[in-house]
Specification:
homodimer; 420 residues; alpha+beta; Alpha-Beta Plaits; nine-stranded mixed beta sheet; five-stranded antiparallel beta sheet
Chain lengths: 420, 420
C-alpha cells in the first residue's frame, strides 16, 4: 500500500523554519518574525539558492526556464514518460509568514527525501517546481511564472512588466541570475499536485484535517466611484444632501445581503475592502467616495448573475440617493475546476490515513489553476491556526497539520506516478 | 424711518474683493482664486492692517486687546451708554472664499461709512470688531478670541495653544504685533449683531432673501473605532466574518434614519464624514475601521436623546456583528438661543425692505454664540450660490444678497442704538 511510506514531520518543519529565516523581519506590532521575499529581489534570490541547494543535495536534475521557473527532476523507472509535477512558489508578499507557497515546494522535496530514504523508484519521473512571482506583489500580475509556462501570458509581455521603481521582470531576472535558457513551454506533465495552506478559517473552525480542493472560484473586482455633493454637516438639511458615504454604505450592506441570501448559491462572497471618502472630515458630508467590491463564486453562471445584480444596484442607489456612480472592472477570472479523479484519490488517501477531509473551493488563486489548463491538476489544503490568517507574520500551521497534507500528497503522487 | 438709509452695495463688494486679495492663491482644481489667511500668520497680519486702515480712515477709535481682538468705536450722542457691537472675523481656513466672516466685518464698516455720509449720529456708540482665530483652523479651538473676551476661555489657556509647528498663540500674537494692551474682558455691549453667509443651501434653494437666525445648534462629535477581524475576502465565508466596514455602514445608515425619522425633532442632522478602513485593500475584509459621527440639533434635550440612541446602536451593532466598538467625544457644545426681540426686529426690518425671510438655526458655530452669553445677540444670514458651498474658493454670494443682509443689519442697528 502506498501509505506504508510517510514523511518525517519534524524535518519538514525544520525546512520551513530555515527557508523562513531568509528575508525575515521583526514585525513590531506582533513581536513575531515575518517574511518579506518579494519576487526577484535579493531575498528571493537567496531563497532560490537555498532551495536549489536542497534540490542538488537530493541529486535532482535542475532546469531554470526563461521566466525563472525552477524545475527539479527525479528520474522514473520509465523515464521517458511524462512526469508528475508537484509545485508552488517561494516568493512572498511584503508581510508574509513562512508557509504560503513554501509548504508546497518544501513538502514536495520532503517527499523526494522520503522516497530516496526508502529507495522507492516510481514508474514516472517526478518534477518539483517553484514558479516566479506567484504573489503578483511586486510586478502586479499574480501566477506570473506558471501563467507563462502554461501559455496564458506571452513571455515578452511578462518581461515588460515593471515594479513601482520601473525595474522590469527581464532586467531583474538577468540581474539575479535567473534568466534561464530553458524553453518556458514544457510538454504537459502527466498531472500536477500542489499542497498549500488554506489561508482561511474553514478547515480549522470545522475541525477537518485536510481540504480536497474542488477548484478555484471566479473573481470579479470593481472599483466604484460615487460622486455626490460635499456639504457642511451642520448647515445642510438631510433632504438636500447627496451623500456619497450613504450610497457606499448601502452598497456595502447590499453586498452582504447578496452573498448571504443564497440567491447566487451557498458560496457567494462579497467584500467592500476599501472605502475612501473625500474630503474625509468630521464636519463635511462626503461629496465623493471610491470603494472596492470583491465578488467570488465557484460557479461562473452564478458569478455572472451576482455581477449583474450588483451593477443594477449601483444604478438603483444612484437614482435613489441623487449621486452618480461609475465603476470599472479591475480584475475578472472565471472558475477553474480541478480534476475529479485526483480529488477522489486525495479523499481516499486521507481516509486511509484516518484524516477527516472536506471538499472545498479555493478562495485564493494558486499556480495549480494555471496548470489545470494543460493537465489534470488538483490541490490539498492544510488548516491554519488563528482563523487561517495569511499574508501576515501570524500565519501558522502546526507540524502535524503540515505533515498530514504532505503525506496525502505523497500517497496521491505515488498513485499517479504508477499510472501508465 | 430707519430704512431711509441704505448702504452702497458695490462699495461693499469692492471691499470684499480687496480683502480677498490678501492671502489669495490659485486653486488648481477649479481655476478660481481662493483665500488662505490662517489666524496670526503673515497673511492674517496683512489682512488685519488692511482692515485697521479702513477703520482709521473712518475716524474710529481703535483698541487691540490682549488676545488680539480689534475693536473700532464710533461715538454716540450719549457716549457713556454701552455700545451696540457688530462683529465677526477675518481669519480663514486654508481653502476659503472671501465672504466667510469678512462679510460681517466689512458690512459693519460699510454701515459706518453710510452713517458718516448721512451725518447720522446714533444715541449709543457703535463698535465694529474682528476676533482672533474664529476658525480654529490653526490652533484647534474655534471662536477663540470671542470666547476669551466673553470669559469662556481663560487667556492663559488661550496663550498656551499651539499650532502643528509648536508655535503658541502668545508668541504669534507678539510676533505679529497684535498682542494688545487692552483688558480682554469688556463691559458687556448693549447688544451684538453679526451678518454672515449661511454656509448652507437652505436660503438659496428655498428662495429666501435673508435668514433670521434663531440660535446655534448643539454639536456632538464622536470618533468611533470598530475592531473586527481582518480576513481574506476570497477564503473567509460570510458567516465567519467580523467585518468592521459592515458595522460602520450600518451605523452610517442608522445615522440617516435617526435624522430623518423625526424622533429627535425636524432639524436633527447626522453625518459620517470620515471612514478609514484597515488595511483598506480590495481583497481583505477590513479588520478595523475608524469613523466620525457628527450630530447637530437645535434642542439640547433632543440632542441628548439622539446621542443616547446612537450610543445604544453602537452596542447593538457590536453584538450583532461580533465586533468591538469604542468611541470618544471629540467635541460637544450645547445650544445657544439668540435674543427673541432682536430676531423680531430683524424680521420686521426685512419685511419693510420687501425681503423674504426664513427663521433658521445656524448649523455652524459663530462669534455671536460667545457674545450671547454676555448680552442680547442675534445674526442675519445671507444666501450663498452653489448650494451655499463654503470653506472653498467657490464660496459666493451676489452683490445684492450681501447688500440685503447688511441693510437689514443697518436697520436693526439703528433701532438698538436708539434704545435707552
Amino acid at each position: 500500500m502506498t501509505h506504508s511510506l510517510s514523511i518525517q514531520p519534524q524535518r519538514l518543519a525544520d525546512a520551513l523554519l530555515a527557508l523562513g529565516r531568509i528575508g525575515s523581519y521583526l514585525d513590531e506590532g506582533s513581536g513575531l518574525w515575518g517574511v518579506s521575499r518579494l519576487a526577484l529581489t535579493a531575498a528571493d534570490g537567496e531563497g532560490r539558492h537555498h532551495v536549489i541547494a536542497k534540490m542538488q543535495a537530493l541529486g535532482l536534475q535542475i532546469t531554470t526556464d526563461r521566466i525563472g521557473n525552477v524545475y527539479a527532476r527525479r528520474r522514473g523507472r520509465e523515464d521517458s514518460l511524462a512526469p508528475v509535477m508537484m509545485g508552488s512558489h517561494i516568493d512572498s508578499v511584503p508581510t508574509a509568514g513562512r508557509f504560503d507557497g513554501c509548504l508546497g515546494v518544501l513538502g514536495a522535496l520532503e517527499i523526494i527525501e522520503t522516497l530516496d530514504a526508502a529507495q522507492h523508484w516510481t514508474r514516472r519521473p517526478i518534477v518539483v517546481a517553484f514558479f516566479t512571482e506567484e504573489e503578483g506583489a511586486r510586478f502586479g500580475t499574480d501566477m506570473l511564472g506558471s501563467a507563462v509556462a502554461t501559455g496564458r501570458i506571452p513571455i515578452e509581455e511578462a518581461y515588460a512588466l515593471h515594479d513601482r521603481a520601473g525595474l522590469t521582470v527581464a532586467e531583474e531576472l538577468r540581474q539575479l541570475g535567473f534568466l534561464g535558457e530553458a524553453e518556458e513551454h514544457l510538454p504537459p506533465p502527466h498531472a500536477y499536485l500542489e499542497c498549500h495552506i488554506e489561508q482561511g478559517p474553514v478547515l480549522r473552525r470545522r475541525g477537518f484535517d485536510v481540504g480536497v480542493v474542488t477548484g478555484v472560484q471566479a473573481i470579479s473586482w470593481h472599483e466604484v466611484t460615487i460622486v455626490g455633493r460635499s456639504a457642511h454637516a451642520g448647515t445642510t438639511p438631510m433632504e438636500l444632501r447627496a451623500d456619497a458615504s450613504v450610497a457606499a454604505s448601502r452598497i456595502n450592506l447590499y453586498l452582504r445581503e447578496l452573498a448571504t441570501s443564497g440567491r447566487f448559491g451557498p458560496q457567494q462572497r462579497a467584500t467592500m475592502g476599501a472605502m475612501s471618502p473625500t474630503p474625509g472630515l468630521v464636519n463635511i458630508v462626503p461629496g465623493r467616495m471610491v470603494v472596492t467590491v470583491d465578488l467570488r463564486n465557484p460557479d461562473d453562471a452564478q458569478m455572472r448573475a451576482a455581477e449583474a445584480a450588483v451593477i443594477a444596484f449601483y444604478a438603483q442607489v444612484a437614482t435613489e440617493e441623487g449621486v452618480q456612480i461609475s465603476w470599472r472592472q479591475t480584475a475578472r477570472t472565471s472558475c477553474v475546476p480541478f480534476d475529479g479523479g485526483i480529488q477522489a484519490a486525495i479523499a481516499a488517501a486521507a481516509s486511509r490515513r484516518g484524516l477527516s477531509q472536506l471538499s472545498m473551493v479555493s478562495g485564493a488563486g494558486h499556480d495549480a489553476q494555471e496548470w489545470a489548463r494543460v493537465t489534470r491538476a488538483a490541490m490539498v489544503f492544510v488548516p491554519g491556526e488563528y482563523d487561517g490568517i495569511s499574508h501576515n507574520p501570524r500565519e501558522f500551521s502546526t507540524v502535524e497539520q503540515c505533515a498530514n497534507g504532505v503525506n496525502v500528497m505523497l500517497d496521491v503522487l505515488l498513485e499517479l506516478a504508477e499510472e501508465s
